[in-house]
Amino acid sequence: MLCRSIHAPLVALTLLAAPGAAADSVLIVLNKADATASLLEPGTGKTLATLPTGKGPHEIDVAPDGVLAVVTDYGVADAPGKTLTVIDVPGRRVVRTIDLGEYRRPHGVAWLRDGRHALVTAEENKALLKVDVGAGKVVTSVATGQEISHMVVATPDGARAFVANIRSGTVSVIDLEKGELIRSIPTGAGAEGIAMTPDGKNVWITNREADTVTILDSRSLAVVGEIKSASFPIRVKITPDGRHALVSNAKSGEVAVFDAVTRQELRRIPMKLEATQTEGRLFGAGFGDSPVPIGILIRPDGKVAWVANANADRIIVLDLEAWKVAGTVTAGREPDGLGWSGGGSP
Length: 346
Fold this sequence. Notes:
The chain has strands spanning 3-4, 14-15, 26-31, 36-40, 47-52, 57-62, 68-76, 79-88, 93-99, 106-111, 117-122, 127-132, 137-143, 149-154, 160-165, 170-175, 180-186, 191-196, 202-207, 212-217, 223-228, 233-238, 244-249, 254-259, 265-270, 293-298, 304-309, 314-319, 324-330, 335-341. By secondary structure, the protein is an all-beta fold.
């Protein structure tokens, strides 16, 4: 695997600050249509940097110590990506591009707690990769055998990983210690978004074509719940206290809020935005005027969330205590993946 350094000029953007964020915290927004990552200071609204990535940056995760962030360079329609962009967040610079060689369409990414390795899905290869970020190479590849292996989460102890497979409508369970596929479990048509509860006991999966959310027991692998979530549920995040689940519904332009214990839908929060650009975007004009909310990020203290609206080029700020829209963030074109570097109580 090859590593190379990349440097580029910074470009100023704008941000509406989220309440209560610490000065040293950084919100990272991936702009798919621009092939950039925007580093923003939530507390003051200051733009810290806009950094280059590979084409079509889709997902990002920040290492446990908050220093390095890994971006998956998914590519564009006629040119599959095969790289990861590594960002030094405090240094506000790209420090490495990791060439994945034979592996194409990297998408989901999740750091392991060792702070050295990251899990990355490779859609075209139907595989989950374990990447040594420091060495810049793939150390393990496990075949899922499923179509469009998209998003990934790992249990807190790093023993298992769960991969959502869109076209197959399944979740693949992988033993990370043995580097083996345990099984693939049907969850519903269009299985895409995935999240682990903070206690590691349950996995939530959004099935975008079935308009459902499936809940798995992470140990027994039994399906322990299925709930409706219209329309086109595409991402899910669990609040740090484990009490609520937020689901972005791309077609309706809403975020559904569920009680994670009773599994009842409590409310829907409309994004109150309209699409400003559809041509050349992932879902085009298929969802009409919907702003197409996709990526969700919840601040570590659980008080604020951000929702990236890909067709509106805006990120909504949600107050999770009042359960209402508190403001907007402006980054680049077609925002999606979101990352956070900062303290647990910003």
